[in-house]
Write a structure and sequence with these properties.
The chain contains eight helices and 20 strands. With about 350 residues, the protein is of the alpha+beta class. The strands form six sheets. The chain has a five-stranded antiparallel beta sheet with strand order 6-7-12-10-11. Strands 1-2-5-3 form a four-stranded mixed beta sheet, covered by helices on one side. The protein has a four-stranded antiparallel beta sheet with strand order 13-19-18-17. A hairpin with a 3-residue loop joins strand 6 and strand 7. It is globular, with a radius of gyration of 20 Å. The model has no long low-confidence stretch (mean pLDDT about 95). Bound molecules: flavin-adenine dinucleotide. The site of flavin-adenine dinucleotide has 34 residues, from strand 3, strand 8, strand 12 and strand 13.
């Protein structure tokens, strides 16, 4: 197990904000995870599992514990029949390598989630999703290390309590489980319409009518590149805010004042209102607040241009959320998690 003293967290997070930690430990397998957690228990240190750092914001204060850097690899087809293939991936594998493997094998189910940054192990944490697909649609189970009991558990997808950008790993039991592997069932059938509106529009414009996973991947990559800044050039965490989920009553109030407000019916009296639209309609798009730029191409994304640290980011967040609340009466929530 390799240990690094006093790592600066901002170097490991795509937002490039955050202080340091006491230590960082690279984990290549389950044994490394077990040893690190035992060390933390023995020495009364905190621990935090890190994937690609694309959905984490760190505070300026030192994290008094060990950051576990996930390096658990491996991707294999473990079962196959005429209709589907089951793939198991180590939690430290880059998510997009799994998508590429599925495209290469002509399997459908995750192609619309092409080039989402980060690791396979983090994908179930917030039930990653894009262009009409979520990992909840194809995940069979995860293998996870229970940091309380020290046991490895197999947790079926139905027990992960997936919702929009939510799971037990993120909201109900954060820190309890370290995901070691994920297992997905992908289909041998071609992707079927209806596709998400802007994906369909792109496919129509490109005169693509015979849908295959490679074309969907290419379309998604093209669309994303116009909307999402590359974290390597412009530090960001993707969507900084979740889309707002409102009741029918709240939606009707919104539509009474803004008849053109976009929304998606999610069933169960829940409606998704794009937070990018809310921020945009407060005339905040493109604005620089405390060194944080509200992305001119997509107001959901905050870019760290010159923030001095977490406190600047928090001030920008407070101004944006208060402005949206004052105008629409809707509370918007941050998507990235915090160390
Ligand atoms: C440019 C950009 C675009 C993005 N687009 C999308 C998008 O379209 N859709 C979407 O859903 N997200 C998107 N994201 C957010 C992000 O990519 C995903 O949330 C991704 O799954 C995070 O992976 P990660 O490995 O970087 O996780 P990290 O940021 O390292 O960790 C995120 C959380 O997961 C926990 N975690 C990480 N690994 C494990 C593990 N093995 N076991 C248990 N918990 C773990 C961490 O402790 C932390 O709480 C985007 C981000 C960026 C920067």
């Amino acid at each position: 197990m390799k240990l690094i003293d006093n790592p600066s967290l901002s170097n490991y997070l795509t937002m490039k904000i955050g202080g340091s930690a006491l230590m960082m430990a690279e984990a290549y397998n389950l044994k490394d995870i077990q040893d690190i957690i035992q060390k933390c228990k023995n020495e009364k240190l905190k621990f935090y599992i890190l994937g690609g750092g694309s959905n984490i914001i760190a505070h300026d204060e030192t994290f008094n514990g060990i950051i576990i850097q996930n390096k658990i690899t491996g991707m294999n087809v473990i079962k196959e029949d005429g209709e589907s293939a089951v793939i198991k991936a180590g939690s430290g594998e880059p998510w997009d390598d799994l998508v590429k493997m599925s495209i290469h094998m002509n399997l459908s189910g995750i192609e619309a989630m092409s080039i989402i940054p980060g690791t396979c192990g983090a994908a179930p944490v917030q039930n990653i999703g894009a262009y009409g697909q979520e990992i909840a649609d194809t995940l069979i189970e995860v293998e996870a290390f229970n940091t309380d009991s020290g046991e490895v558990e197999t947790i079926a997808a139905k027990d992960c309590e997936f919702k929009y950008r939510s799971s037990i790993f993120r909201d109900k039991l954060p820190g309890k489980y370290i995901i070691i592997s994920i297992t997905l069932r992908l289909s041998k059938s071609k992707p079927k319409p209806p596709f998400y509106a802007n994906l369909q529009k792109y496919l129509d414009n490109a005169h693509i009518t015979d849908y295959n996973v490679s074309d969907i991947r290419q379309a998604v990559i093209q669309i994303r590149q116009t909307k999402l800044p590359d974290p390597a050039k412009q530090p960001n965490s993707g969507s900084f805010f979740k889309n707002a989920i409102v009741t029918k009553q709240k939606l009707e109030q919104l539509l009474a004042n803004y008849p053109n407000a976009p929304y998606y019916d999610m069933g169960n009296n829940q409606y998704k209102v794009p937070t990018g639209w809310l921020i945009d309609n407060c005339n905040l798009k493109g604005k620089l607040i405390k060194g944080m730029r509200i992305n001119p191409a997509n107001a959901l994304v905050l870019i760290n241009e010159s923030a001095s640290g977490y406190k600047d980011l928090a001030a920008a967040r407070a101004e944006i959320t208060a402005t949206v609340y004052d105008k629409f009466g809707i509370k918007i929530e941050q998507e990235p998690l915090e160390i």
